[in-house]
Specification:
The complex is a heterodimer. By secondary structure, chain A is mainly α. Chain A has helices at residues 11-32, 46-67, 79-97, 102-116, 122-143, 152-156. Chain A has six helices and no strands. Chain A is flat, with a radius of gyration of 23 Å. Helices cover 73% and strands 1% of the residues of chain B. In chain B, helix 1 packs across helix 16 (353-374) and helix 4 packs across helix 5. Chain B is globular. Chain B has helices at 2-14, 17-35, 41-52, 57-82, 91-102, 106-140, 144-161, 166-181, 198-201, 206-224, 244-266, 273-286, 299-322, 328-339, 346-351, 353-374, 378-384, 389-407, 411-429, 435-457, 464-467, 469-487, and strands spanning 183-184, 191-192. Classes of the chains: A mainly alpha, B mainly alpha. At the A-B interface, helix 1, helix 2, helix 3, helix 4 and helix 5 of A face helix 8, helix 10, helix 18, helix 19 and helix 20 of B.
Chain lengths: 157, 499
């Protein structure tokens, strides 16, 4: 991405201002749907209104920064690396959600993350991730009796 | 001499074998995570919260305090040996420390950092012993409106006053406050911002937010700019012992650093970066060897390291006496208290003196352990830095997700973790401070409850906020702290600390 010189609006900064405004709208919309209860002082609606108002003001402040070149210069993003890590997290969520168990999920996350940091020996990393995940599972599930989700691999242990 | 009596009783608690063991685990873990880049004490406490849930509160709080102190120690090792500070608070140490290591004086640099940290930590912990009971006596008379005003001060100083950009700091704070709204309102039972999702009714878990922001956000950020940086590990050369001249040049910076660190840490001003840079510039001005600054002057390591540790101790004062966290690690420790149903504050000093004073006494023990362990084990810590970066971050992510999976193995919770990770990445990329988000999430609901309680007592009269002299003064301070950075643009050049 370009580091916006002063005088040219920063697109990413404008987007951040937009997200803040959207968040304020969501809070306002949710708060108006609350049912009123009569209490002394202020009810559960006051704080959301204050926060939403703050977000609107700060959205304007961020927009001002974005249009005046107030955002810091940035390096180019390594999209492949970010994509690999997010892909690994998505795989982890899917595996845990579908009952694939902790070990498989953690192994895949380990392999994709080390690939994101530039490793190419994917099979070795899968093996290391597997050993680490099994070790964590045995320590925490058997020794400390914390429940980690079990899948086909965990039932073998 | 009440304080000394309480401290002696605390020592009896802290020297129980189990608690000594917890302190030892804490300082070892803390040093390790302080040394490793990409993982700091706040994240470590966040990861340990689900694991320690079933342990004895005194033991695990002693461990958390050990992690905090150990993290401050470990950060200096990384700063000196590879110019990439493990903690933001070690930035100043890296300036001279890395130059010393390059000049073959890595040993004395590590030694002055370790001994300076010990001296500062001990003095500052004594400061806690005498300051805490005095503050508690004042805090006993606080009404809900005073607490609300105090939290306003903390919100503003943590986010706006000392940051690079007050707008960015306040944005972070507001996001944290918005996240704090999620869930069932404690006073009326109304669900806010839950959108019918059962997982959201309990509110946003502090650990999920912290782990997402600190672990996943950091990993994404480092991966996204991986090609740009090159770390070079300097071998520890030369004797670890300081010469007579090193001692003579170190002891004054240690004491001055402590004087900067403790008060700034104890005020709700947040962050160890300000005192470390103040100490650095002071030493630079006062030194008799101005030529050496920029080439490896020992004063530039001794002062900031002492300031760093003293401010870590200082942040425990508002945390223990008022329940007010002023750094991300302190915020995670507050979450640690809360998971046992304990609320730090004057009441806790009255109800659980064994726990509070045991914790304070254990700080002396942790500090001594760090001094004894750190220098002989420096070779071991350095070896941690040899872990290849891909495996280090892959391991961090596996542990980070494991904590959440163990606490709540739901798709919603893991998705929130990922969203917070992306948020942390964007915030780092665009230079938004992260600590105010965590402070906002933890303190926001407390501040709201205090405000509503104050207005219930006054039957809805908002004048109660300015009728109490304490509350009026604090609100005025908050207002000044909010406006000042806009008026005095460019005066505060120091970045807010994130750990």
């Amino acid at each position: 991405m370009d580091s916006a010189p002063a005088g040219r609006p920063d697109i990413a900064g404008t987007a951040i201002a937009g997200v803040l405004l959207a968040l304020a709208v969501v809070i306002l919309w949710d708060t108006t749907s609350l049912q009123l209860t009569t209490t002394y002082g202020i009810g559960p609606k006051a704080m959301p209104y204050v926060v939403a108002a703050g977000l609107v003001v700060l959205s304007a402040g961020n927009l001002l920064l974005a249009w005046r070149g107030g955002f810091p210069p940035r390096e180019e993003v390594d999209r492949r690396a970010v994509g690999l890590i997010l892909g690994g997290l998505a795989a982890l969520i899917a595996i845990v959600g579908l009952g694939g168990g902790f070990i498989a999920a953690a192994t895949i996350l380990f392999a994709t993350t080390s690939a994101a940091f530039g490793r190419r020996a994917i099979l070795i990393d899968v093996a290391i991730g597997l050993v680490l995940a099994v070790a964590i599972y045995l320590t925490f599930d058997k020794l400390l009796t914390l429940s980690l989700p079990a899948g086909p691999l965990e039932r073998l242990l | 001499m009440d304080a000394l009596n309480s401290l002696l009783q605390g020592l009896a608690v802290a020297t129980q074998p189990a608690n000594l063991l917890f302190a030892l685990i804490g300082v070892l873990l803390g040093t390790a995570v302080g040394v490793l880049p990409g993982i700091g004490p706040a994240l470590t406490v966040a990861l340990l919260l689900p694991v320690t849930f079933k342990l004895d509160p005194a033991g695990s709080l002693i461990m958390f305090a050990g992690i905090y102190y150990g993290g401050m120690y470990g950060g200096s090792t990384t700063a000196i040996l590879i110019n990439t500070p493990g903690e933001s608070a070690s930035l100043a140490t890296a300036l001279e420390g890395n130059k010393m290591a390059k000049a073959g004086r890595g040993g004395p640099a590590l030694a002055t950092a370790a001994i300076g940290s010990f001296v500062a930590g001990t003095i500052a912990t004594l400061g806690i012993v005498f300051l805490a009971p005095w503050l508690v006596e004042i805090a006993v008379r606080f009404g809900p409106e005073d607490y609300f005003a105090l939290m306003c001060v903390a919100f503003i100083t943590v986010s706006a006053t000392f940051g690079d950009s007050p707008v960015r700091g306040l944005t972070s704070l507001c996001i944290g406050l918005a996240l704090g709204l999620v869930g069932i309102d404690r006073l009326t039972g109304q669900a806010r911002l839950a959108f019918g999702v059962p997982e959201l009714l309990d509110g946003v878990e502090v650990t999920t937010l912290a782990v997402g922001l600190f672990a996943i956000g950091e990993a994404l950020y480092v991966a996204s700019r991986r090609n740009k940086q090159e770390d070079k590990l300097e071998p520890v050369r030369g004797s670890l012992w300081m010469t007579r001249q090193d001692w003579l040049r170190s002891w004054k910076p240690w004491l001055r650093g402590t004087l900067f660190g403790f008060p700034i840490g104890a005020l709700p001003a947040g962050g160890a970066e300000i005192p470390t840079f103040l100490s650095y510039s002071t030493e630079r001005r006062l030194t008799k060897y101005p030529d050496e600054f920029g080439k490896g002057a020992i004063e530039g390591v001794a002062g900031p390291e002492a300031a760093n540790n003293a401010s870590a101790a200082g942040t425990l004062v508002p945390l223990l006496t008022l329940g007010l966290p002023t750094s991300a690690t302190a915020a995670m420790m507050l979450a640690g208290f809360q998971q046992y149903g304990l609320n730090p504050g004057p009441l806790l000093f009255a109800e659980r003196p064994d726990l509070v004073w045991g914790l304070i006494a254990s700080l002396f023990i942790a500090n001594t352990m760090l001094l004894v362990l750190n220098l002989p084990l420096v070779g071991l810590w350095v070896r941690l830095l040899a872990i290849p970066q891909p495996w280090l971050y892959a391991g961090i992510l596996v542990f980070a997700t494991m904590g959440t999976i163990a606490a709540k193995p739901s798709v919603v919770e893991l998705s929130m973790l990922t969203v917070f990770g992306v948020m942390g990445f964007v915030m780092r990329r665009f230079d938004y401070p992260v600590a105010p988000v965590v402070v906002g999430l933890i303190l926001g609901p407390v501040a709201e409850a205090q405000l509503r309680r104050a207005l219930q007592i006054s039957l809805g009269d908002p004048m109660v906020l300015v009728q109490s002299p304490m509350s009026a003064t604090l609100l005025a301070i908050a207002l000044v702290a909010l406006i000042a950075p806009f008026v005095l643009r460019g005066v505060s050049r120091f970045k807010t600390s994130e750990d």
